[in-house]
Amino acid sequence: MPSNKDLDRRGLLKVTGASVAALGLTAAGCGGDGGSGGTDADGPATLRFAWWGGEPRAVKIKKAIALFEKKNPKIKIKPEFTDYQAFWEKFQTQASGGNPPDVFLNSVAFLAKYDKRGVLLDLKSQIDAGNLRLKNFRGGVEAAGQVAGGKQVAVPVGANTMALVIDKKAFAKAGVAPKFGWTWDDYFTSLQTIQDKLKISGDTGYAGIMYLYDLYLRQNGKAFFTDTELGFTEDDLTQWWSDYYKRVKSGLVTDPKKIEQVKPKSGLSAGLAAGEFTWDNFSVRYEGEGDSDYGLAPIPTTDGKDTGQYLGSLMLSISTKCKAQAQAAKFIDFMVHDPEVGKILGYDMGVLATQDQFDAYKPEGETDKAVAEANKGIGAYETEVDKAGVLGKITPHPSGADVVEAAFLRIAGDVANAKQKVPAAVKQFFSEAEAAFQG
Length: 439
Known about the structure:
Elements: H1 4-7, H2 9-12, E1 45-52, H3 55-71, E2 75-82, H4 84-96, E3 103-107, H5 108-116, H6 124-128, E4 146-147, E5 151-152, E6 155-156, E7 158-159, E8 162-167, H7 168-174, H8 184-198, H9 210-219, H10 234-250, H11 256-262, E9 275-279, H12 284-289, E10 294-297, E11 314-318, H13 325-337, H14 339-345, E12 351-352, H15 355-360, H16 366-388, H17 401-416, H18 422-438
Parallel strand pairs: 1-2, 1-3
Antiparallel strand pairs: 3-11, 4-5, 6-11, 7-12, 8-9, 8-10
Helix pairs in contact: 3-14, 7-8, 10-18, 17-18
């Protein structure tokens, strides 16, 4: 992810559940009546390819497109890109009007939503035809592109997992050494040690991070989502948010008002705390923002072993309206498998998802070297648990998951800021989640 604006989940989630006015967009490329799709992957076609992100990502993707067109001169790619919020606003309008892009960037929160609306192509036919290879992905991340029932509607382009980013100097000064297998009790004891010795908080704030709570639930035999609804109870969430609020009041977790004051910097790089839970590939932001040394620490556990972790991903999907589905599948295959594309994209959309691209890319710039260094621990963990057969798979998210995630973040913020008491906040969240699933 190339910029702090792209990395800020609070900003990214503002779009979810938004009502969007019609934009009056006209059709372009090969979008059409949603027929059976072309069968000649080498035949002539023009494909609209849409993604979100900043200018650095656009530059890299355009280089990859140029390489594809050079190797496949009969297929032309028309790029469409904008920031995250504008992308989903525009996409919702396009999809509602029957004019979505032919190929587009996607994420797990939107898969079931747009599959339910008939927007996402079932990729099985293109996989069976040999136009799209679903092999050689790292750590089983290909499962991230599936909806309930195992239907493949997207293909990962990058892989990441939740991690704890720490200020290594602060942890060392406090005499705290996180290690694989440490428990949540160990973690919160460490936060107390950091507060006592360094007079700063240990954590910038974790209560509203849906994917972290998902790991905690998975450690306890549950999950944030089932195929159709929430996978936990009001009592579960009451405990999670009650404990969190107490830690904010005690200073173990940073006062959220202080976090707001230093934005767009993170609370970690601003020195307000010693650690922050986030996606592992987001760790590059801290080296650019802060004055300390930062690294990844393992996710705390319930039983001293199972972190609940899985590989998540940004993904590529094909619209059911695309007439040149074989060519679109060939383009996605190229974007996720070609080693030269791996060298171009680097870790912009996460650690490269396929082994060929992962092996081909050698970080050169300071930013990507930081990602490579940060991912050593997670990479070693992934290898270890993968061999042991315990690396989990992401649970397919039901339709409405995007709205639920936004509500979880917002209402957790109200709890942390004492704008709402926990029992009322929990009831509000469950009510909003039920409405999102029914929408």
